[in-house]
UniProtKB/TrEMBL annotation, chains A, B:
One of its GO terms (biological process) is L-histidine biosynthetic process. This is Histidinol dehydrogenase. Pathway: Amino-acid biosynthesis; L-histidine biosynthesis; L-histidine from 5-phospho-alpha-D-ribose 1-diphosphate: step 9/9. The gene is hisD. InterPro entries: Ald_DH/histidinol_DH, Histidinol_DH_CS, Histidinol_DH_monofunct, Hstdl_DH. Substrate binds at residues 242, 264, 267, 333, 366, 420, 425. It comes from Candidatus Kinetoplastidibacterium desouzai TCC079E. Catalyzes the sequential NAD-dependent oxidations of L-histidinol to L-histidinaldehyde and then to L-histidine. Gene3D superfamilies: 1.20.5.1300, Nitrogenase molybdenum iron protein domain.
Length: 439, 439
């Protein structure tokens, strides 16, 4: 049932915390039928490989491919797609790609080491993940920006083989998606989707290379399949509905704030848009702007459902209290739309991305500011981070003990190992102290 | 069935790859009964909190506590434990703690930002995770080194509340564990374990604080409970059996290498110890050393089962081929026990920790070299890293667009948003360009 207006909460009311936690709650999507279907698809891919992949692809995407080799799109077609889009689109994609690249260059971790007095060397070696699979949803919800945001950090990290998969329902592939893949230096593209694509990337088939990690958004089947293959391969995260939290001092035009709330709500009926402001009058203005602008929006149906069922306008005591509430909500996107956002930044601990000042709409960050738009949802910014170059690099500890170091450390390790009842550990250390076992 | 001797493989044989992949395979532990028990324990904790926690704790640990407040061990008891251990043990723990702290200080990430020509500021803010739960197994397998390895990086990261849980079967708590907790600045300790402890940390009860992330090793119940609460809280990793892979040029004493293989095998019957060497004669010496040393080992039963069922001695063409094989195995621990380990390091991509040179036994790294001993197992070093300070920090993107920046970027974002059919995104950007919507 859709409510008839947006929720209004007041942080001074007694039951505020309860109401807030109810607002944030999402009914969990443990769907048994999805689990069953995905489990059986994954098993088929694992056992009969390409044969199952072809069957599922033809069935779910309503196409009829005979040979698995036809599943790959040759690079010449990507280039054609790039040449087919408008000059403005191409230019915009190029600017976005450049800025994303520039930002992510700052995230590269490098190997480090240090030498101790006795010559012992300790450090950490950083290497890129070798092969990565990138899932890109097909059909209408095909987002070229998603290709850039996932592929560019992988390539900045040095991933040697970036395999993109994207289904072509009824044979359709969005040329903007192919153009974005060409621009962001994806290595190969296969027209497969759903749990069957995730399985093919995780286990490998004759046609699809087995990868080390799978990233990218997808529907409930893709999400469950990713969870299921986790361990065999790495995965990025399993994203929930998108969220925006706006802290506003009332100095940003109300219409801008209303539209920022819309921009999250238009994604999905389950998306969540919340405003925190200490200015009751401003909140009223935003509510009026919502009413005025809503009918003009092409996606007003989705926006209405999202905003009225899951959105809220919240009156807070002051901006500092707003920050405390923001840390509890731990939003995916946080706009600090105030005159002096820097003053508030120090109070913010939990947020995927922080958009500061009235000119920084979330939509600028979604496409082209530079930072990644793949962000932790559902309060997970309490413990996780935006997708980044660090998700495509891994670390190995480096330990090179000198002869003197082994004498010093061997005694310590031996003492602790015997305390834990692990005598082979102790003996192995003792051999390095004086060549013999002494327990 | 235990084999009667250790496996021998030769990389030049035709079916080597098949044999190797069979050796690495572990029968998956999807145990339905564990799943059912854990699911019901977690539900009880979620619904009746402390009451369920007390019931399960009393039952599984064979104790009889009446009030949940008795589950907390006051700090005075930790101090008593520290004073009760031997001077050598205390000194060894102190040296280990200091070295672990020193190494992990190198892993701290710091907030960064850069300013563009038009005044736009981009960056990333680094913050510690607020509350972390640390699981420490109880009873016989209580490892103080595990406390140091998990607690110190959390505290280096700046975690404000580090809650340790450890069961006390029959009321027993290892004083070394309490001493290590005191030394590594854990904040609170509760005597709970199993799935009920994981649930209490994930959901919170009246007595146990709800945390943001849970780390630390545990049995199959703990591992499954961690998987199950993932999303509600972060988790570190779900570790498989421990592994060592040794590359040796034949210049390290054979007994040392045999003992290094033992030191992994003594953990667990499923632990895996493998040697790669191009020197057939040396492999024979190692095999003889194994036979000679095995009867002397207090844990010879476990070592024998592990070594004969899951271990292997592998003859390779040369050291470079050994590195290629090592990358496929992607071991948790890799010893490069050669005269010039640096020459081989450049070939190694996948390994949790790399121990270089004959003096660097894995056991030194397990306890006191400095790097973490919590490492990716079961070939997951292809895509994951040792536990580190970075596991207790998280990032938030920082975006502060200037007025001029919003004009430049607004056009790009608007173009791309309209291409994706997201008009509110476009409008939100356009407002920042010239204050009005233009589609």
């Amino acid at each position: 049932m859709t409510m008839t207006k947006i929720n209004f909460l007041n942080s001074s009311e007694k039951d505020f915390n309860l109401k807030l936690s109810q607002l944030l709650k999402i009914s969990s999507q443990d769907d048994n039928s999805i689990e069953k279907i995905v489990t059986s698809i994954l098993l088929d891919i694992q056992t009969i490989g390409d044969k199952a992949l072809l069957q599922y692809t033809n069935k779910f995407d309503r196409i009829s491919i005979k040979n698995a080799s036809e599943l790959e799109i040759p690079k010449s077609k990507w280039k054609e797609a790039l040449d087919s889009i408008s000059r403005e689109q191409k230019k915009s994609l190029e600017i976005a790609a450049e800025r994303i690249q520039e930002y992510h260059n700052h995230q590269i971790s490098r190997t480090w080491e240090y030498t101790e007095k006795d010559g012992t060397i300790l450090g950490q070696k950083i290497t890129p993940i070798d092969k990565v699979g990138l899932y890109v949803p097909g059909g209408k919800a095909a987002y070229p920006s998603s290709v850039l945001m996932n592929a560019i950090p992988a390539k900045v990290a040095g991933v040697s083989e970036l395999i993109m998969v994207s289904p072509t329902p009824d044979g359709y592939m969005n040329p903007l998606v192919l153009a974005a893949a060409f621009m962001s230096k994806v290595d190969r593209i296969f027209t497969i989707g759903g749990a069957q694509a995730v399985g093919a990337l995780a286990y490998g088939t004759n046609t699809i290379p087995k990868v080390d990690k799978i990233v990218g958004p997808g529907n409930a089947y893709v999400a469950y399949a990713k969870k299921k293959v986790f361990g065999t391969v790495g995965i990025d995260m399993v994203a929930g509905p998108s969220e925006i939290l706006i802290i506003c001092d009332g100095k940003t035009p109300a219409e801008w704030i209303a539209m920022d709330l819309f921009s999250q709500a238009e994604h999905d009926e389950l998306a969540q848009s919340i405003l925190l402001s200490p200015d009751a009058n401003f909140i009223k203005q935003v509510e009026e702007s919502i009413k005025k602008l809503l009918p003009k929006m092409p996606r007003s149906d989705i926006i209405t459902k999202s905003l009225y069922n899951r959105g809220a306008l919240i009156l807070v005591k002051d901006l500092e209290e707003a920050c405390i509430i923001a840390n509890t909500i731990a939003p995916e996107h946080l706009e600090i739309s105030t005159e002096n956002p820097d003053e508030l930044l120090k109070f913010i601990n939990n947020a995927g991305a922080i958009f500061m000042g009235k000119y920084t709409s979330e939509s600028l960050g979604d496409y082209c500011a530079g930072p990644n738009h793949v962000l932790p949802t559902s309060q997970t910014s309490r413990f996780s981070s935006p997708l980044g170059v660090y998700d495509f690099q891994k670390r190995s500890s480096l330990i090179k003990i000198s002869q003197q170091g082994a004498i010093n450390l061997g005694k310590v390790a031996s003492e602790l190992a015997l305390g834990e009842g692990l005598q082979a550990h102790a003996a192995s250390a003792q051999y390095r102290v004086n060549g013999k076992i002494s327990w």
